[in-house]
């Protein structure tokens, strides 16, 4: 009832006029399609209380007072698609998440439903619980394997710091083998995290701890999310480690999401450093664009703008930007290149 | 106590301590009441009353005032809610401090309680001190309102220790000021409307979105 | 029925003076740290709620306070532990053999760790024995289901 009254008022105040979306961005004199590989959705009541408070406090007041309705308006597929339309992003990938201590749970089943809202534009990355692996590994692996068979599922999402699992944990051979056998890349959160209860020690955040697994599974593709960014101190963190790993291992991909947001990198200097480092290392054929949206209204579009500015600042050519914004996504996940 | 609060305490209590002021050299003209002026100025003339109903974003609420027969005081009751989630129920007194043809300035002190539900829930006894500045009499009344709202938060920890159970209380005060600018228009005797902009600050120093509202105002007279 | 009690009941949240009320226990834990023979170095770790959350968010081992000791042996620690929404008290610790402050930095393979539950809990006194014998494993890898 309250939401029914508030939504029209918000719409009126925020001026959300309906316009036909225009896909793609202009860069270097060319029109380029954009795919956002890092998007979240889920249900507010599957986020732990401490994180709900954290998120609510970061919404512009008074939207934090109605955090649940504010969040759920943008955390379902329809809300995500609205943000993609606003940003001109043609396709996006939704993450399942099993991190009950920190960012909460977005189940594989939920993601599967959301992907079906627009299967031409939405993909899914499945995930699995790691918190009772010694007793529950087989069931979790079976569920993940079944999920990866579902329409639209193109990869696996893990977040060691959020899931409280060391990056060098030796118990997950079967998981890496599954990724290699199915050809589904594994996305890994790297770096610290601002969320309550995150495991912030280096063993959980520093991708250097993951190198033995990268080396042991050359047929599995690993995407190092956030480039090891230090979200606590707003510093580049393990950027050099990530870039060096990508330079040394052909099965390492890089994804510069979230680190360049207005909150995490107010001046944009760190995102520029990151894009410059990736270009300097000659690994732009393995950089995949993502935002980590939707976070807040307008975030997906804003993050894309900041990323384009960083690429421009780092001297990217239109072809390099095209690779980062869409072609590398198609390459790593084995899908058709995105249309404009 | 904030400087604004102190100022308003002095403003409201001073008449009670001092001699009755001399007659206003520029008295309010006789005639029908100005409920919109009364409501926007925050205090009515003796015998008058005003009730306003507010709707908008983020605030919804109702406020009533009735002039008391002594010291120029008005009794005020107010229920106000942001998005039906952050609700303040307050009562207290107001008084016109300055009242000329050009300007009406009033001060107001209310006390009561507040309760906020949701993920940022909180509750506790609350106070609100308000300064209202309105242009003098006329069919159209612009008005500026500055409110300083405080809530006393008491957190209780019940601790089992080897020596027995102990209870510890920690207290803090949360501040949420609001500034509003209104323009009220008298529609007919005893009935008016106003529209305004709000600049709330819910949980300083975090950013708050501005808001807007419409008031329906009715008033009576002696 | 009089409407007054109902009115007072509905107004009671507004009139209530307490913002939050939480329950805690101050527990003194006697910890026996057992290391492999011949090893002695500072020990670090975390105190965990053994369980927290409900439903899909129910999860073992939620760290809430750091632990440190000069080395193997018996140490006594006094903790203030919340009781709302959590259960149990479990200690995870590891021995910093190379003194770098990191548990098994890349290339290091010998720093032993252990996990143990403090009992009884909740209580004002509890005991836990921790055998530091699993090299380079995190608390999650040592969790066997409680």
Secondary-structure blueprint:
The complex is a heterotrimer of chains A (340), B (222) and C (146).
Chain A: H1 2-14, E1 25-27, E2 30-32, E3 35-40, H2 49-58, H3 67-75, H4 77-87, E4 91-95, E5 97-99, E6 104-106, H5 108-115, E7 122-126, H6 133-148, E8 153-158, H7 160-163, H8 173-182, E9 186-189, H9 202-205, H10 211-216, E10 222-225, H11 239-248, E11 252-255, H12 269-280, H13 299-313, H14 318-333
Parallel strand pairs in A: 3-4, 4-7, 7-8, 8-9, 9-10, 10-11
Antiparallel strand pairs in A: 1-2, 5-6
Chain B: H1 3-17, H2 35-41, E1 49-57, E2 59-67, E3 73-82, E4 86-99, E5 103-116, E6 122-135, E7 140-161, E8 164-175, E9 178-188, E10 191-200, E11 211-220
Antiparallel strand pairs in B: 1-2, 1-11, 2-3, 3-4, 4-5, 5-6, 6-7, 7-8, 7-9, 9-10, 10-11
Chain C: H1 3-15, E1 20-34, E2 43-52, E3 59-69, E4 73-82, E5 86-95, E6 112-117, E7 125-131, E8 134-135, H2 139-142
Parallel strand pairs in C: 1-7
Antiparallel strand pairs in C: 1-4, 2-3, 2-5, 5-6, 6-8
Work out the largest interface and the residue count of each chain: A-C, 30 and 25 residues
CATH fold-level label of chain B: Lipocalin
- Proportion of β residues of chain B? over 45%
Adjacency order of strands in the biggest sheet of chain C:
3-2-5-6-8
* Total DSSP E strands of chain C: 8
Going by helix content, strand content and strand pairing, the class of chain B is mainly beta
Low-confidence spans of chain B: pLDDT under 50, at least 5 residues?
1-32
How many E strands of chain B?
Answer: 11
Number of helices of chain C: 2
Based on CA atoms alone, the radius of gyration of chain B comes out at 19 Å
Shape of chain C: globular
Major sheet attributes of chain C: 5 strands, antiparallel
The amount of beta strand of chain C, in percent, is: over 45%
Query: What's the overall average pLDDT of chain B, rounded?
Result: 85
End-to-end distance of chain B = 37 Å
Main beta sheet of chain B = 10 strands, antiparallel, barrel
Explained architecture:
The complex is a heterotrimer of chains A (340), B (222) and C (146). Chain A is of the alpha/beta class and 340 residues long. Chain A has 14 helices and 11 strands. Chain A has a single domain, classed as Alpha-Beta Barrel (TIM Barrel), CATH 3.20.20. In chain A, strands 3-4-7-8-9-10-11 form a 7-stranded parallel beta sheet, sandwiched between helices. Chain A has a two-stranded antiparallel sheet with strand order 1-2. A two-stranded antiparallel ribbon of chain A has the order 5-6. Chain B is mainly beta. Mean pLDDT of chain B is 85; it is low at 1-32. In chain B, strand 4 (86-99) and strand 5 (103-116) form a beta hairpin. Chain B has helices at residues 3-17, 35-41, and strands spanning 49-57, 59-67, 73-82, 86-99, 103-116, 122-135, 140-161, 164-175, 178-188, 191-200, 211-220. Chain C is mainly β and 146 residues long. The longest helix of chain C has 13 residues, at 3-15. The model of chain C has no long low-confidence stretch (mean pLDDT 92). The chains are: A alpha/beta (340), B mainly beta (222), C mainly beta (146). Chains A and C meet through helix 6 and helix 9 of A and strand 3 and helix 2 of C.
